[in-house]
Write a structure and sequence with these properties.
The chain is of the alpha/beta class. It folds into two domains: 4-32 and 282-410, Lyase, Ornithine Decarboxylase, Chain A, domain 1, CATH 2.40.37.10; 34-280, Alanine racemase (TIM Barrel). Helix content is 29%, strand content 25%. The chain has helices spanning 18-25, 34-47, 66-74, 84-92, 109-118, 128-141, 176-187, 209-227, 254-265, 278-281, 314-318, 405-410, and strands at residues 4-7, 10-13, 16-17, 29-33, 54-59, 78-81, 100-102, 122-125, 145-152, 174-175, 192-198, 234-236, 271-274, 285-295, 302-305, 324-326, 333-339, 348-356, 363-366, 388-392, 395-400. Strands 4, 14, 15, 16, 17, 18, 19, 20 and 21 form a nine-stranded mixed β-sheet that branches. It has an eight-stranded parallel beta barrel with strand order 5-6-7-8-9-11-12-13, surrounded by four helices. A three-stranded antiparallel β-sheet has the order 1-2-3. The radius of gyration is 23 Å and the shape is globular. The structure holds ligand LLP. Ligand LLP is lined by residues 59, 61-62, 80, 103, 163, 200, 203-204, 238-241, 275-279, 314, 318, 372.
Length: 419
């Protein structure tokens, strides 16, 4: 459920008409609903009621906006970060360092040092080499780095290949059959407090079965390690729970997911950790855009909008579907191709789609754009970096400013020898 609804014929975010935001801020612009974010955070946590000992770390990569992080910090969420930049954001939002998990396959020495210096809660190690390096850094600083070992369970998450992470050929984690030996060697290192295992098999997962299989496999490894005398007190199950991108799509929600986790991990006697991203932010945001013009096409008209693949790259990158809706729908429908102004054919949001009738100057939204939307935006074709707005009841605020091409141009320099 979200709080983007028609009121008096106009699409609103909570109690604010999207027309008002477009008029004041211009388009394209991302609009987030504070109430929806909060609701998703609560529904996810409530779904895990059957898991007594848990830690929830919001996957910052899905939406790193400071105001979004602040909402989640207020809900008691920690953070899952994959760079020093994300760590700084989580800290700036008021998330305690102890509640932050550092994931990612390429943590640099500088990032590990900075994280040790603030007393970061947990590092999810992606390789033995990384563990050895972290142990040295921590020992030099006179601290012990708390860590888990990320294992690649070789399970197909059944999602798009580009967001699948738990197959043997993917770059993530250590191979399942080598994990026990690596765990043993890393456990012996002075600078590390190795306390468990981690996995994450992919994103936008729409069935519970791949996760169930992967978690059960990790449970087996946990038992093997414990039998050999090692401590495995924490199990980080990653993120990945999918969201409905199309109205009416049926897929397992937090309650079903939580029940499955409770069933699989019930007798583990471990702290279970979660890294949800999309399920919290996806349906809490829309990308608001204006139709520049409608151009005739051979198969269907092209609705050319002022948002483009640089603002929302998911359709171009993953063939992703985002529902499109008019802000002032008339009730009439048309079949159209929705495209942006960028000069390549991948700048296409939808082909042959049945949509609300729109004309030049009309406003529309791409729904389910709160996750992996603004955070993946860029300035291709020297377009502005898209701004972000958050609505809370009948108030709203700009939570990320539009960065104009002139600002970016001002940071570029022609060397003397080219003058
Ligand atoms: N934990 C780890 C270690 C991850 O790599 C990810 C996402 C998550 C948690 C959060 O997953 P979620 O709950 O959001 O599915 N840009 C792509 C998605 C990439 C996901 C990368 N990792 C997209 O737009 O679909």
């Amino acid at each position: 459920m979200d709080h983007f609804e028609l009121k008096n014929g106009v699409l609103h975010a909570e109690d604010v008409a999207l027309t008002a935001i477009a008029e004041a801020v211009g388009t394209p612009v991302y609009v987030y609903s504070r109430a929806t974010l909060e609701r998703h955070a609560r529904v996810f946590a409530e779904g895990l009621a059957g898991v007594p000992d848990k830690h929830i770390a919001f996957a910052v990569k899905s939406n790193p906006n400071l105001a979004v992080l602040r909402v989640l910090a207020r809900e008691g969420y920690g953070a899952d970060v994959v760079s020093g930049g994300e760590m700084d954001r989580a800290l700036a939002a008021g998330m305690p360092a102890a509640d932050i998990v550092f994931s990612g396959v390429g943590k640099t020495a500088a990032e590990m040092k900075a994280a040790c210096a603030v007393g970061l809660g947990q590092f999810n190690l992606e390789s033995e080499e990384e563990g050895v390096e972290l142990a040295e850094i921590a020992a030099q600083m006179g601290v012990k780095a708390t860590a888990t070992l990320r294992v690649n369970p070789d399970v197909d998450a059944g999602t798009h290949a580009k967001i699948s992470t738990g197959k043997a050929e993917n770059k993530f984690g250590v191979a399942y059959d080598q994990a026990a030996a690596i765990y043993a060697r890393l456990s012996a290192l002075e600078g590390l407090n190795l306390r468990g295992l981690a996995l994450h098999i992919g994103s936008q997962i729409t069935s519970l079965e791949p996760s169930r299989a992967a978690f059960a496999k990790m449970g087996g490894l946990m038992r093997e390690l414990r039998a050999a005398g090692f401590t495995v007190s924490h199990m980080d199950l990653g993120g990945g729970l999918g969201v409905p991108y199309q109205i009416g799509a049926q897929l397992p929600g937090p309650a079903e997911y939580g029940a499955m986790v409770a069933e699989v991990t019930g007798d583990w006697g471990a702290t279970i950790m979660f890294e949800p991203g999309r399920v919290i932010t996806g349906n809490a945001g829309v990308l608001l855009t204006e139709v520049i013009r409608v151009k005739p096409g051979v198969t269907a008209p092209f609705v050319v909008v002022d948002a483009a693949m640089n603002d929302l790259v998911r359709p171009a990158m993953y063939d992703a579907w985002h529902d499109f809706a008019a802000v002032r729908p008339t009730g009439e429908r048309m079949v159209a191709n929705i495209v942006g102004p960028i000069c390549e054919s991948s700048d296409t949001f939808a082909m042959g789609r049945d949509i609300d009738v729109v004309a030049a100057g009309d406003l529309g939204v791409f729904r389910t754009a709160g996750a992996y939307g603004a955070t993946m935006a860029n300035t291709y074709n020297s377009r502005p970096l898209v701004p972000e707005v958050m609505v809370d009841g009948d108030k709203w605020a700009i939570v990320a400013e539009r960065i104009e091409p002139a600002t970016i141009l001002a940071a570029e320099h022609v060397p003397d020898w080219l003058r």
